Structure formats: C-alpha cells, structure tokens
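Kindly go through the entry underneath: sequence plus fold tokens. Please state briefly how this chain folds according to its tokens.
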Amino acid sequence: MINKTKRFRPYYLILLILAIMIPFLCYPYIFGVDAFELIWMANAIKEGALFSENTWLIHPTSYFGYYPFSHRAIGIPLIIAYLLSFLNLISVGIFGISEVILVYNIILIIVFYKASRSLGNTLFNEEWSRFMFTGALLFAPHIIDEFTMTISTRIVITIFIILILNFNLKIISGDYKINYKDIIYILLIFILGALIHRLWLGMIIPFLFTLIIFIIRKNKNILKLILIFILPLIIICFFLGLSIFGIMPRFELNNSSLIQSILFFLNYYGFNLGLISLFFPIGIIIMIYKISIILKKKYKIESSIFKEKKFLLLQKNLYLILFIIPFIFLSPQLFYALTLFSPMIIIISINGLIYIKNYISSISKTVDRFLPSIVFLLLFGFYLVRIGIFKQTKINLVFLLLFSIGILIILISISIKIHHKKNNFHLKLRKEFWIITLIIPFLTFTMMEIQMRNYERMNSSYPWENNYLTNEEKQIINYFQNKDLNGLIFVCDDEISARIGGIGFLPTFHGLELIGLCLWYGVVSPEEIHMGTKVSSSLLDLIAQYYYFYKPLNANWSSESWPLEVLKLKIIKLNMTYLMDCLLIQSEYNIQYVVTIKQKFTHFSNEWILIESLYQSDLEPIFSTQHFLVWNLHGL
C-alpha cells in the first residue's frame, strides 16, 4: 500500500479553488431535469411530507425509491430540505433555492476532491501521477457538469464508488486487517447509497471482486485461467448490453452498425471524461500485458520481497480489470455507466499516460522535459479545432492561440532548465511548472465543454427546449404565488411542469409523474397504487424493472398504459366548448388552471382538443408571457 503524503502542496489548493469557482460562473441559473423533481421533494419534506397523510411514502421501499410514484430515494431531498431551512434561518429568508444548490455543489466538490486525492495516493507512486489523477477526475466534463448549479444524485454514487475502490485496494495491497470500524463504515456506505440512488446496487460489485481476489490470491494457475477469460467476458458483456438495452438488434449485427456504435461510445465517453480518456486503450493493453508478464515470469532469481511486490501489483491490476467487466455491460446505459465506471476509465487512462512518460524518459531526458507541453498541446489543439468547427469560428485564430500557448510554455521550460542547476529552487520550480502545465488543458477543456453545453441548454428559440428555469417560468411562478389554489394546474409540457412545480412548489400536472406529486395532491390514492403494483423477485423481472423499481401491473415504463398517462389522454380530449366537458374537467379531474403555449409557436400540445377548444371558448387568458398563456377554468 502506498503511504499518503502529508506535505502541503499549493497546486492542489489551486485545483480545488478552480473547481469551486465553476458553479459560481453559472449562478443563479438552475440547470437539470431531475433536479426540479428533487427540489419539489425537498419542498414537500420541508412542508411535512414525512408525516403527512398525503405523502408518497406509502410503503417501506418508497424511502429508497423502489415503489411506484416514489421514483427517487429521499436521501438527497432530505439534505436539500435541511440546507434550505438552515440557510433561510441564518439569512432571515434572503437565501433561496439557488443559494442552496450552490452550497450543495460546493460541499460535493470538496468531498469528491478529498476522496479522489485519497484514491490517487493509494494507486500511484509519483506525485505528478497522483495530481494528474485528481485533476483529471475532478475536471472531467461529466463530473464538473454534475457540480454546476444542479442537484445531482448520481455523482454521490460515484463518490461512494471511489471510497469503496480505495478501501478495497488497501485491503488487497497489504496486510490490512478488517476491524469493527471497517464493518460499520461499509454498512454506512450501503445505507447511505440506498437512500440516495437505486444504483447503490452497483457498489456490491467491488466487494464481490475483493472476495474473489482473496479466494484465489495464492493460486497462480487460477489467476492465469481468469486472464484467459477476461477478454471474451468483456466482449460478451458489451454485446449483451447492446442487445438488452436495445442499441442493436440481438444477433443481427452488421459491420456498419457495429462501427457506428463503437465510434459513438468512444466519442461519448471521451468527451464526457476529458482528454485523459484518449489514453484509455493504451492503459488497458499495458495492464493486461503487465499481468501476463508477471504470471509468466520465473521467481527463482528474485528475492522474496521483490516477488511479494510483483504479486501485490498483479492482484491490484487484476482487481481493476475484473471491476471493468460488469460496467461494460452497462456501457449502453450512458448516464448510469458514467456514474459507476468513470473512476475506472480515468485510472486506466492515467496508467496509459504513465507508460508513455516512462517509455519516452528511457529514450530521451530532453524530450521527457517537454512531454507535458507536447502531448497535451496536441490534445488541446484537437479540441480547439473541434470548438472552432462547432462555433463556426475562424480556424486560423484557433491555431494562433494554440501556437502562442505552446511558445510560452516552451520558453518558460527552457528558462527553468537553464537556471535549475544554479539553485535547487529552480529545480523545484521546474517540477511544479511541469505539474501545472499538465492541468491547464484539463481546465480549459472542461470550461469549453461546459460553455458548449450551457450554450445548447440556454439558446433555444423556444424556452421549453432550454434545460434551465427561464425568466418566463419565473413570471408564471410569481403569478401563482398570490393565487388561491384549490385545484391542479395542468401544464402542456412535462419539463415546464416539473420546473414551475418544483421551484414554486405548485400543484402542476402533466400525466407521466414519478415523484409522488400525484399522491401529495390526491390525483391518485395509495389504495390504487397498492392494488396495481406487481412485486416480483425473479432476476429477469428485476432487471426489466430497472433495479427493483416496482411498477403498476401490466404497465410499461413509458407507455399509454401508465395510469397517469391514461388520465392525461382523457383530459386532453375534452372540449371546452361543451358544458359537460367543462364540468368534468373541474369536478372529476380537479383542474383549476391550464398553462398553454401560444398557438403561433410550434408545440405538439397545440394540437390537443383541450388547447384548441380553449381558444374557441368564451374564456380569455388571465396571464400571458411571450410564449405562454394561463387560463382559469373556474371562470367557465
């Protein structure tokens, strides 16, 4: 086991400060889709949902998100509700949900940084590789996007995966004895994971592989046998995942679809995990190669200490490769695979970079000094060209910027090389500069990627296509704050419904609701849910139901047979020029307000009979924005 260094290193502090600054750059905008559902749940908990008769917590499994209409575990909403109450208390109501999300993100960044640095100290010998691992993981676009003014649940599971990897590698890599504190630690991780996301089941995998390593650690023949099956298992898991998750037709693969899928996965994982992932293929090949060399090598000449070190390295590398296999199965489920698999991709990628550095160092010390500048400027240039094409900017300016940065770094490197012999400080400065040079492309890459995503999320012609709370939606929320609400607000778009319902804690309804809102407002009753719930313990049913997610009997995940979707289909067929339909929508469905999109804008809901008939009825909109109209049905 590699001992952690206790020495203070300022570039880590700079790394952490830069990461914390990124959410501030997007404040006060709130991004996300699921985030607004979590905000609604937090508001409901703050209003007493844990003890209310109308709560969605109608079954013990509801607390963990495994029962219909509970949708999500209550761990994160509980934390947000506490932060919301605490910040409101100390700020006398000045701080709102944007400030709560900012604080939540900062806390997660600090915890993620500490966990990543600790794992880096366990995995790598040299300081530069530890720093690279921490920086690459912390500044991966996928990771930093989860910390940028949104409420993320999956990233907490990623933190747990990092903690478990670190814990298990310590057990495998030395004479570590498990005590009662470790058992409590493991149980706590599992309980917290279950309260945060259904993906907590993925945390069982590392412990299973730790057990496998313990069983076979002294039998080299079994280790060789496992290595023979590793590659076929990875291939089988990948294609099995493609088949089960519907990416490719089962047993009907052709060359073009296979190549397209592989290129898609490479692009997706590469640009979500950053520049370092380009070294992943080299890292995985080198890891398998080193394991095979160690297994084949004769130990007669080597000392017992050297043999033990080689064997510990073998166990660690084998454990990491075994860890890959089940997540290859999950690779088509892009978000979930990134959540569980991203630390492993970056670990293996860093190993690939270490191999390249060591190989170049053995050839030329001079080239080694300029390695970070050469390698990462090339990678950085590749991404700058991509940005230039995406933004339709002049490629010449992109190359000019790249050339200027390269010349600056090379001049500083030469200056440090000339003077480092005269003073040890310059030698230290060269090492510090070497590390800082490595992290600059990661930071720039991440900032560009975040800006690209924000540009796409905030610059649509229509606000309902933007992935954040718009000013028009804030106007609608403010309008309803002063209204006496006795019924539901039917919203023509599901994401608009989630945003104004979550931030404004309003009784919005759109049909396919999974957050318990419909139980809270009495759209459905607990008895209806209990009667229509199918609970199965068969493995195939559990996989089909997305990690123990129970669903109403004979209802698919997102189809017209879903109970609330059936209800929505009935509502949108009502004609507001008919008196019976007007009475029906108020009395039976309890719809008080309808939020529509103006007919001059293209939206599928404008074709509903309900929306078309509103324009033909005697009603007039009582509130409007540039794109939206609000109708009061009690005026009929």
About this structure: Residues 1-5, 248-256, 546-550, 553-559 have pLDDT under 50 and may be disordered.
